[in-house]
Design goal:
By secondary structure, the chain is mainly beta. It has a domain at 88-131 and 150-169 and 221-467: Single-stranded right-handed beta-helix, Pectin lyase-like (Pectate Lyase C-like). It has 5 helices and 33 strands. Strand 10 (132-136) and strand 11 form a beta hairpin. The longest helix is centred in the first third of the chain and has 13 residues, at 73-85. It starts with a helix and ends with a strand.
Length: 471
């Protein structure tokens, strides 16, 4: 039973904590998991869903109007304050159109948007001050608040069949990207000076508290960022028009992202970017994005090595990837490393999808990327099927050679591609152990490039109807 705020206060009883998830975590039959894939059930068993006290705080009772005109920021703040005061609960957003500034969740709290509810973030950058500790392109800083944010919390959930609109468009937020902003030319300041200054601060080891890059630096915030949190659930919601990355858990443990739609076609509109996270499940999601669909990250250059926090134990399954720079991507902010990633049963299909599977790094970012397992993937039209590229951006200009090894791809099917492969290691630091089996690319205009790979094995792979035998 759930208690409304009014009934809870009247009863004087504290309801027992219960799991917030409305249905059991699904798992294919155990027989599907053997060998290295046997780690998947272990990872799933280690993921803890948030436990939210069974009491509701309806924002209408705190003054929200939901008429698409009023500013309901104060109602959200009041509901969260009341919820936090009694140890947590569920902030319920009923059907309606709500406008708000940033929303900061606290431990043991669920933000739940009922079907028919739309939450529109007001696109006025000054509202996203004061600055908070965040991570931007893999570097820690004090920057604009993410639109939905929690830091150092336990038991956090964002759920419901409602819609969340980040409010970004070609008039607000997106023009700060500068060139290639996917908008017609708009007279606007850009992120470039602030971005370069932030990266320089990180290389010099400037303390994070002194990296002040909010007002005047034009570094766009993500739509959802949970920072240093434990037991996180993001489920069912539709997320659109993000200023920057859409879903960005950072330094989190036990993260479940399930059945969401991430649809944003602005610059850098990645769908879901777990960064330096451990024990993550992403399942049954739809990604339709202006940048990578899923990008696994772990910090950039000196800042990533300072924290030395890899992304590890990540399961991705039953997802759809449409538009995007890549379906499953690792990098480019990858200096802390990535390991133990399992992707299965995904469909990637769009004429605007550039790459299916991609690892992007270089000699400045480095990173140890290993034990990556991909199986049962269907790709429609794509530019490149498999990309492992050590020459991304700065390329061979640095002292931190990547280590990439134990990459396994099984049962991948692609209808049409411009290139089958773009795989380039360094001669002094080759890719070690790339294994492709039981896969077919029906039409490929070019085989592409395979350079500096040791331990390449190919078994029952065809391209353009002919057996592929790398030579």
């Amino acid at each position: 039973m759930r208690l409304s705020r009014r009934n809870f206060l009247a009863s004087g009883l504290a309801a027992a904590a219960i799991p917030v998830v409305p249905r059991a975590m699904s798992r294919p039959p155990a027989a599907d998991y053997s060998g290295p894939w046997g780690r998947v059930p272990e990872i799933l068993d280690s993921i803890q869903l948030p436990r939210i006290p069974a009491r509701d705080f309806n924002i209408r009772e705190f003054g929200a109007r939901g008429d698409g005109v009023a500013d309901d920021s104060a109602a959200f703040a009041a509901a969260l304050a009341a919820c936090g005061k009694v140890g947590g609960g569920r902030i319920v957003v009923p059907a309606g159109d709500y406008r708000s500034g940033p929303i900061h969740l606290v431990s043991n709290t669920e933000l739940h948007l009922e079907e028919g509810a739309s939450l529109h973030f007001i696109p006025e950058p000054e509202r996203y001050l004061p600055a908070v500790k965040t991570r931007w392109e893999g570097v820690e800083l004090m920057g604009y608040s993410p639109l939905i944010y929690a830091r150092d919390c336990e038991n956090i959930a964002l759920t419901g069949r409602g819609r969340i609109d980040g409010g970004a468009d070609c008039d607000t937020w997106w023009p700060w990207k500068g060139e290639n902003a996917k908008c017609e030319f708009v007279e606007s300041p850009t992120q470039q000076p602030g971005r370069q200054a932030l990266f320089a601060d990180a290389e010099r080891g400037v303390p994070v508290a002194e990296r002040l890059y909010a007002d005047g630096s034009y570094l766009r915030p993500p739509l959802v960022q949970f920072y240093g949190c434990r037991n996180v659930l993001i489920e069912d919601v539709t997320l659109e028009n993000s200023p920057f990355w859409v879903v960005h858990p950072v330094l989190c443990e036990s993260v479940t992202v399930r059945n969401i739609t991430a649809r944003s076609h602005g610059p850098n509109s990645d769908g879901c970017d777990p960064e330096s996270c451990r024990n993550v499940l992403i399942e049954k999601c739809l990604f339709d994005n202006g940048d990578d669909c899923i990008a696994i990250k772990s910090g950039r250059n000196a800042d990533g090595r300072r924290l030395a926090a890899p992304s590890e134990n990540i399961v991705i399954r039953d997802c759809q990837m449409r538009d995007g720079h890549g379906g499953l991507v690792m990098g480019s902010e990858i200096s802390g490393g990535v390991r133990n990633v399992f992707l299965e049963n995904c469909v990637m299909s769009s004429p605007h999808l550039k790459r299916g599977l991609r690892i992007k790094t270089n000699a400045m970012r480095g990173g140890e990327i290993h034990d990556i397992y991909v199986r049962n993937v269907s790709i429609g039209q794509v530019q490149d099927v498999i990309v492992i590229n050590f020459f991304y951006e700065e390329g061979d200009r640095g002292q931190f050679d990547p280590e990439v090894y134990n990459i396994f791809v099984d049962n991948l099917r692609c209808d049409r591609a411009e290139r089958a492969f773009h795989i380039r290691g360094f001669e002094r630091a080759p890719i070690r152990g790339l294994h492709i089996s039981d896969s077919a690319i029906q039409q490929a205009a070019s085989l592409g490039v395979i350079e500096e790979v040791t331990g390449l094995t190919v078994s029952r792979v065809s391209i353009n109807g002919e057996a592929f035998r790398p030579g």
